[in-house]
Design goal:
single chain; four-stranded antiparallel beta sheet
Length: 244
């Protein structure tokens, strides 16, 4: 049993199953990738693990350290060490970057916030006094959000499409943060349809239509996905233009 166990989870939205009898285990201190085409249910799974509103009425169970998370609100899941890095980071208009980074951290000092920013390649003197708002680019906001996650010292980090909307330099900094999380023994889950991101994982799960198709090492699962997953006529079967 891993640190987090997804056990026969089915979630219906608008009457149709988005997650369909899904089971998988996440191991402590590993970097896992959950890969599949757009619409496979990957982001829905992340939202369900996090317990976000609208994603709590699922069948089956989600266990953290063997204990059920059913009925546990999102803030309590966060307190227990689960955090989610959004595909599109939220803006907190007017909130200083330093306060944003240290909001969920035990160490709320400027030094701690600065160290987190430096890991993501952002100069503290240029960012700590700025506001988290529309003056930051998408890539800057994503890095600031990841700096806040580093500062929290979480147990499990769900990263939804970490390469979305950012340039190559920013992505490399995110990969550096990923390496630091792994060195700390944090369990990381990369939600992705990118083979570049998949290559940074230790282990991978292949999803389609809310179902687990296969699991194994990155080479095995990457090969499946690169070759259009398993041969099938399902609507979610990825086309060549979807493969990255």
């Amino acid at each position: 049993m891993g640190i987090l166990e997804i056990s026969h989870v089915t979630l219906r939205l608008d009457g149709r199953p988005i997650l369909n009898d899904l089971s998988l285990d996440l191991w402590e201190g590993h970097v896992h990738a959950i890969i599949g085409p757009n619409g496979a249910g990957k982001s829905t799974l992340a939202s369900t693990i996090m317990g976000l509103p609208g994603y709590t009425q699922y069948e089956g169970d989600i266990l953290l350290d063997g204990e059920s998370l059913k009925g546990i609100p999102v803030h309590e899941r966060a307190r227990r060490g689960i955090t989610l890095a959004w595909q599109e980071p939220a803006r907190f208009e007017g909130l200083p970057v330093q306060r944003f980074i240290t909001a969920g951290a035990k160490d709320k000092t400027r030094k701690h916030a600065a160290e987190a920013l430096e890991t993501l390649g952002l100069e503290p003197q240029k960012y700590l006094g700025r506001s988290v708002d529309k003056t930051l680019s998408g890539g800057e906001r994503k890095r600031v959000e990841l700096a806040s996650i580093l500062a929290m010292d979480p147990r499990i980090v769900l990263m939804d499409e970490p390469d979305s909307g950012i340039d190559v330099e920013a992505l490399e900094k995110i990969f550096e943060a990923l390496k630091q999380l792994k060195e700390r023994g944090v369990t990381v889950v990369l939600i992705t349809h990118s083979l570049t991101v998949l290559d940074r994982a230790d282990h991978a799960f292949l999803m389609c239509h809310g179902t687990l198709l296969d699991k194994g090492n990155v080479e095995k699962i990457g090969g499946y996905f690169r070759n259009k997953c398993l041969p099938c006529d399902h609507i979610n079967r990825p086309q060549k233009e979807e493969i990255q």
